[in-house]
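[audit] Reproducing an earlier prediction to check determinism. Same input, same settings, fresh worker. If the tokens differ from the archived copy the diff job will pick it up downstream; this log only records the rerun itself.
[audit] input (191 residues):
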Amino acid sequence: MDKSSETKLQRIVDRQEILDCLTRYSRGVDRLDREILLSAYHPDARDDHGVFVGTAAQFADWVFNAHSAGQKKTMHFLGNHTCHFDNDTTAHAETYCVYFGYNKDDTIDVVRNRYIDRMEKRAGEWRIADRICVVEWFGSLKSGDEMNSVIKPAMASLMSNAPTSRDRNDISYKRPLKVERPTVIPAPVAA
């Protein structure tokens, strides 16, 4: 393989490792898993989330407290992602995110934001060195409690196979994952 091809291949690997890092961040916040969240940051990283500015460890304390106090569940969806490399150890990324927070008062927060990150590769690992979270817009929805009598039981059934948890009891931590429930094939839905 020529040098140009090696460089391109390395950039593909680097981009994927950076995206994996950002995905770990989202999972860490949603599962309230400090170890996973902090694995997305270098120990000396700084985070500016508007109302919060501080170290990664301070951010973990703050965000877990805020999400535990206000929400029953959270979900971060990462979208468009660009990544530009300064060199082999520094990159700048912009990643779109849609955040849903199912609040304790049964409302749902929807926040559209972007993560602007300086990523650094240290000891062979890409992590966030500095982050600025830019909020584009936000809104609120009413919860699903107002669903009609046909939809509500169907949704309850759909949600019964793997109760979620905001800790390491969540099904996503189960290893090896194995479907253990008996076969269920619903009757066709009438048009």
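[audit] rerun output stored. Observation attached for the diff report: Residues 3-144 form a domain with the Nuclear Transport Factor 2; Chain: A, fold (CATH 3.10.450.50).
[audit] end
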